[in-house]
TrEMBL record:
The gene is yrrB. SUPFAM superfamilies: TPR-like. This is TPR repeat-containing protein YrrB. TPR repeats lie at residues 48-81, 82-115, 150-183, 184-217, 218-251. Residues 378-402 have a biased composition (Gly residues). Coiled coil: none annotated. Keywords: TPR repeat. It comes from the Bacteria. Pfam families: TPR_16 (PF13432), TPR_8 (PF13181). InterPro entries: TPR-like_helical_dom_sf (IPR011990), TPR_rpt (IPR019734). Residues 376-402 are annotated as: Disordered.
């Protein structure tokens, strides 16, 4: 929550009321804050901080157009008010107007180059618009003004990681952690970047630290489970995935991880029990069908393995489009023994999955383009989502709403 740094030459009691309005707005009392700022402006419509506050109320209430009216009034009264420019950018972000959002973030930074939150939010908007290079340039410039701003460095690290610049991202995360060693999201970002680089030992150590700092964040435990799986510590992986599911029972990745870890430990029936929890609709999801097929294969239930591998191929539109031969293979195989055909399907699926993973790893922008096209479909929002690969809410020391 941003409160004005430089108030007008108003009476001290009015400025105290302004601070009270921002305080209760931060606590979630929108109506109470609205009453305070409205009353102040009825007394003195030239009180710029109150105009800013009422605009912030409307922004919090998802009324960006009304918010912009008050931010503009604040700027008319105090043209150098960087917070009004920043909040105007936030309003344009709500409206989905990327160009105006970026313009106002830039204006805020021109007025206050040390406003790291403006640079971070600008970068987030640019990343969502698939302008990764612009986002990184903005963050790099901001860190030159505020080299000790850990949040800025984490944003830069996240941007570098998403564009495949792993070594640079790791270095930035480590600098950010040094600046803010009690922030779980720094360890989480570093841990997931190390995980993607298959540095499983470092990833598990880093994510264990994140889990200590954020014991209520399911995504941290899910990532820790993946790191333990990479180390073939399947019992520890299962425990981490179970912790993730305790916190977020609908976490599909954690469900698949918990089942796979149990199967790798020879607990095939327990693994099947985990997957039964996804329900009938969940059983149609290709990754669930692949996991079921692998478990059945490990149990020597080859006919069941064939059925689930075949269903995975036929239900995966992307896999079918990229490899029609795989669809032909799934529709055939009637003359082969089930154990032979199951192995053929298993190897073909794994080969195709590995090729797709390698393709995305070499060109991570493809992932962003695919997500962007999904967001632009009817019903999708351009400004939804965050920079990172997991939800950032929850956990002690979280970034929260700034």
């Amino acid at each position: 929550m941003l409160a004005p740094k430089n108030a007008t030459q108003a009476r001290p009691e009015r400025l105290e009321d302004v601070r009270a309005g921002f305080s209760i707005l931060k606590d979630g009392d929108i109506e109470g804050a609205r009453e305070i700022f409205t009353a102040l402006l009825e007394e003195d419509p030239t009180l710029a901080p109150a105009q800013l506050g009422l605009g912030r109320v409307f922004l919090t209430a998802n009324e960006p157009n009304r918010a912009l009216e008050h931010f503009q009034e604040a700027l008319n009264l105090q043209p150098e008010m960087a917070q009004a420019k920043f909040l105007s950018a936030e309003a344009y972000t709500q409206l989905g107007d990327i160009d105006m959002a970026v313009e106002n973030y830039d204006a805020a930074l021109a007025l206050d180059p040390t406003m790291g939150i403006s640079a971070a939010r600008k970068a987030k908007v640019l990343m969502q618009a698939n302008r990764t290079g612009d986002a990184q340039e903005s963050l790099a410039a901001a860190t030159r003004h505020s080299p000790q701003d850990a949040t800025l460095r984490m944003s830069l690290a996240g941007s570098l990681a998403q564009s495949g610049k792993t070594d640079e991202a790791i270095a930035e995360y480590r600098r950010a952690i040094e600046l803010q060693p009690d922030a779980w999201y720094g360890y989480f970002g570093l841990g997931t970047t190390l995980l993607r680089a298959k540095k499983f030992t470092e990833a598990s150590e880093t994510l264990t630290k994140a889990a200590r700092l954020a014991p209520d964040n399911a995504n941290v435990f899910q990532a820790l489970g993946a790191a333990m799986t990479g180390l073939e510590e399947h019992s520890k992986a299962a425990r981490a995935y179970d912790d993730a599911l305790r916190l977020d029972p609908g976490n599909m990745r954690a469900t698949l991880g918990a089942a796979t870890a149990r199967s790798a430990n020879g607990q095939h029936r327990e693994a099947l029990e985990v997957l039964r929890g996804v329900g009938r609709k969940g059983n149609r999801i290709p990754p669930v069908q692949k996991a079921l097929g692998d478990i059945y294969f490990a149990m020597d239930r080859f006919t069941d393995a064939v059925d689930t591998y075949r269903a995975m191929i036929l239900n995966s539109k992307q896999m079918g489009e990229n490899n029609p031969e795989l669809v032909d293979l799934a529709n055939g195989g009637g003359d082969e023994p089930p154990e032979v055909f199951a192995l053929t399907l298993k190897e073909a699926i794994e080969k195709q999955t590995e090729e797709m993973t390698k393709q995305f790893r070499n060109n991570p922008e493809q992932i962003r383009e695919r997500l962007m096209s999904r967001r632009q479909r009817p019903g999708g929002g351009m400004m939804g989502g965050g920079m990172g690969g997991g939800r950032m809410g929850g956990g002690r020391g979280g970034m929260g709403r700034m």
